Amino acid sequence: MNMLLLFFTFVLAIFLGIELISKVPSQLHTPLMSGSNAISGISIVGALVAAGYAGNDSLGNLLGFVAVVCASINVFGGYVVTDRMLGMFKTKEEKR
């Protein structure tokens, strides 16, 4: 029952994320991504708790590991994109 509730929450989060991202205009997507990196950091903590809570359950450990990897990619990718966006506003002298 517990795993079913976790799976339902996961699927609901996927659909909610797709709906939210599709409604954001492209001009606002990158600045909002830099602000959402803090939220993704909270996701990493939640994924670590979920992986630790699984105990000896191999499916729970696997899902926890996948959650940690996905949240980490989101955080690091967000910072890379934000850095590139901010680099577009630098003058030629500042880029050296």
Structure overview:
This protein has 96 residues and is an all-alpha fold. Helices cover 88% and strands 0% of the residues. The protein has 4 helices and no strands. The protein has helices spanning 2-23, 26-53, 58-87, 92-95. Helix 2 (26-53) packs antiparallel against helix 3 (58-87). The protein is elongated and about 60 Å long. The relative contact order is 0.11. The model has no long low-confidence stretch (mean pLDDT 77).
Which outline best applies?
elongated
Category from helices, strands and their pairing: mainly alpha
Strand content: under 5%
Rg (CA only):
17 Å
- Low-pLDDT stretches are none
Distance between the termini: 58 Å
The arrangement of helices and strands along the chain is: HHHH
Helix content percent band: over 70%
Q: What's the total number of strands?
A: 0
Question: Strand count, sense and closure of the main sheet?
Answer: none
Rounded mean pLDDT is 77
Which terms summarize this structure?
mainly alpha; 0% strand; single chain; 96 residues
Detail the topology: elements first, then pairings.
Elements: H1 2-23, H2 26-53, H3 58-87, H4 92-95
Helix pairs in contact: 2-3
Summarize the structure.
This protein is mostly helical.
